[in-house]
Amino acid sequence: MAKFMRKFGIFFCLVCLLNMYLPVLGYELDISVDEEIRKKYNTDKLEQDILNNTLNGSIKNNSSKNDISKVNQNLQLDYSAALPEVTKADKKFYRKIPRWTTFYVKSDQTISNYTAKGTNVTFTSTAPVYKKNVIIPAGTKFYGKIVNSHPPQITGNGGLIIIEINAISYNGQTYSFDGKITKAVSKKIFFNRIKGKRQYIAGVGKHIDKGERFYKKTRQISSKMADNPILVFLSPIPTVVGVVGYAGTTIVSPITALAVKGGNLSIPAGSTFAIKLLEGAYVN
Questions:
Q1: Which of 28, 69, 184, 188 is the most buried if burial means most Cβ atoms within 10 Å?
Q2: Is residue 163 part of a domain?
Q3: Nearest to 246 by CA among 214, 217, 274, 278
């Protein structure tokens, strides 16, 4: 019985020491602070208010910065171009713009991953294009439509914008045009999909960093205990716990990072794009 009581006493002392020195044993290192914040404030509302205030202010000043990561979620209400009536080119007098012709243009409005599907957008060419029997001057208007968009998603998936270019204005008339975006803000675009930054790998790194910070805290606790003649024999315990926590966080980080969202996508008005013609277009 006395042997059992000694073991129980040692175990009780260890529990007390762990409660005293290791308040960070939870998976989230600062979870106690989070709980206090949640009790006093509506965190969802705070995050939304901060996002709206910050981004709405930044959109006003970003027309010259080509910042594609700051988003106003209400941009789908800000602008929608009206597509003029499309004229069919007269075969007797038509001029052909060859397939694969590239046009360099600038956007006439801000486009974000919150811009609604079906929204019409326009672009204005910044340089003339010379082809056999036809010249497309600078200032030519191109009309497109948002055919798909979504905000950042979990698994680190960033925002998405897909734009189809379906009309061109030439000599006062509007003609059919089958084009796609190949560059946006000097970045190459593949499969016409303009994507926000993927954050999965960054999410894995952030979770590993949490484990590293936890390990460093336990090392500090061990160091303090080692300076105490009463607790010196228990000083290795926090370090051991830190090593286990660090290893565990590293192992599960590829799974926990699946809950991380990707980056937002916003392209300010006046940003540069490249449009490639997929099929020959005919104008008069």
A1: 184
A2: yes
A3: 214
Q: Is residue 228 part of a domain?
A: no
Two structure tokens written together for 58: 């930044």
With 0-12 / 13-18 / 19 or more C-beta atoms within 10 angstroms meaning exposed / middle / buried, residue 225 is buried
* Residue 227 counted as domain residue: no
> Would 7 be classed as within a structural domain?
no
At 180, list the tokens.
């796609």
What is the number of structural domains in the chain? 1
| Domain enclosing residue 106, as ranges | 61-199+263-283
Structure tokens of 147? 């055919």
Give the Cα separation of 103 and 25 in Å (integer). Answer: 58
From the number of C-beta atoms within 10 Å of its C-beta (0-12, 13-18, 19+), residue 206 rates as: middle
Q: Which CATH number belongs to the domain containing residue 167 in this structure?
A: 2.40.128.260
